[in-house]
Amino acid sequence: MIRVSEMVLPGHPDKFCDQVADAIIAAALAVDPEAYGQIEVACWSDQVWLSGGLCTRSPIGLDWRDVVVQTGLDIGYVPGNAIDANRYQVINTICERVGDPRRWSAHVNDQAIVIGWAGYDEGTAWLPPEHYLAHAFRDALTRSCQQGELAGEGPDGKLLVRIRENQEDWIIEHVLVTLQQREQTRLMDLCERILTTLAHAYRRLQHDDRRWTRAWSDIECLVNPNGPLLNGGSDGDNGQTGRKLVMDYYGPRVPIGGGALCGKHPTHIDRIGARAARDAALHAVQTGATECLVQVTYAPNLDQPLDVSYNMTGRGQRLPAEYFGHTAMRRHRPTDRLIPMLVDGRTVLQSSPPGSACGREHALELQRPRHDERG
């Protein structure tokens, strides 16, 4: 069976927008843990557009341009790069309201169909192996651009992996990488450093899991097939929140829910429901199922879901329908635990492979069900 998946690096303009949106949400939560927020971000060239609404009990008191600039600098949009975040012009139309946010954040405020999936085992963080592999290579390239073999390159880039899944092993057949580079960097030098970075990451995977069987030298790799990518980030493409949902969830072979994850307060039904569905699927797999997809349907102003559906291979335990009630989900998931993760720019479903330095503690914590809180 052929499997494919893809990822973008943090400097991709769509992911930049996601991270700005979540940085704004994190700022609101720091003022009011029950804050309401729905933020959209778009970017092109040296301009960033902010829209949406926030409600907190106290004024936030921040200049959102400072948040945009700092997010860009943290990603790698620094002086000398094609994009220098200090030059961003920010058009802000966010409606900020001081009041009680619970009229929106403390109940189901929208309809939603959320999806949770789990399969395989801890060796892939219960993700499809091709998606886990894409995560591993994305994280390796990101770290390398920040402080390793590729320091100073990026931060924009993307990758695609193609594997052949057999009954007992996974064979990588193709890896495609496109990475932004500095003008003074020779393309062949860049390609060599990218391949070195990926080879090291792959050897770590093979060391931890013998199901990755193909030798690195037998894998076909394509690096920057269009030639040098100099104008990365919003200098080369426009960006918008919520355009990388398949990457944020489970990859292309698993259906996704109807809502984006970034730019919304943590108790928004799209976000908190997706986490609960993932927990339920994990619980089923960890108690006997080999694969599980959980679909939960919500209606506005109803605490309990309209429907909870399990599609399970094998036998695993199902959580009671009450587990998916909005009140119960809020009780299980304090928002203060999400703030560091939002600042890291990782969605609530993104997993970090073992050894990842990017949000590992928060991401892995959220992959596993919280059995002690189920009652």
Key phrases:
four-stranded mixed sheet, GMP Synthetase, Chain A, domain 3, 23% strand, flat, alpha/beta, single chain, 10 helices, 375 residues, disordered C terminus
Topology:
Layout: E1 2-8, H1 13-31, E2 36-44, E3 47-56, H2 64-75, E4 89-92, E5 95-98, H3 102-105, E6 112-119, H4 129-147, E7 157-165, E8 170-179, H5 187-208, E9 220-223, E10 239-240, H6 245-248, H7 269-286, E11 289-298, E12 307-314, H8 326-332, H9 339-344, H10 360-367
Parallel strand pairs: 3-4, 3-5, 8-9
Antiparallel strand pairs: 1-7, 2-3, 2-10, 6-11, 7-8, 11-12
Helix pairs in contact: 1-2, 4-5
Computed Rg: 21 Å
| Overall residue-averaged pLDDT value | 90
- Per CATH, the class of the largest domain reads Alpha Beta
**What's the helix-strand series?**
EHEEHEEHEHEEHEEHHEEHHH
Number of domains: 3
Which fold name fills CATH's third level, the topology of the largest domain? GMP Synthetase, Chain A, domain 3
In total, the number of strands is: 12
End-to-end gap: 41 Å
Spans of 5+ residues with little confidence (pLDDT < 50)?
343-375
The CATH superfamily title of the largest domain: S-adenosylmethionine synthetase, C-terminal domain
Q: Strand pairing plus helix content: what structural class?
A: alpha/beta
Helix content, binned percent: 25-40%
Please state the overall shape, judged from the principal axes of the Cα atoms: flat
CATH architectural arrangement of the largest domain: 2-Layer Sandwich
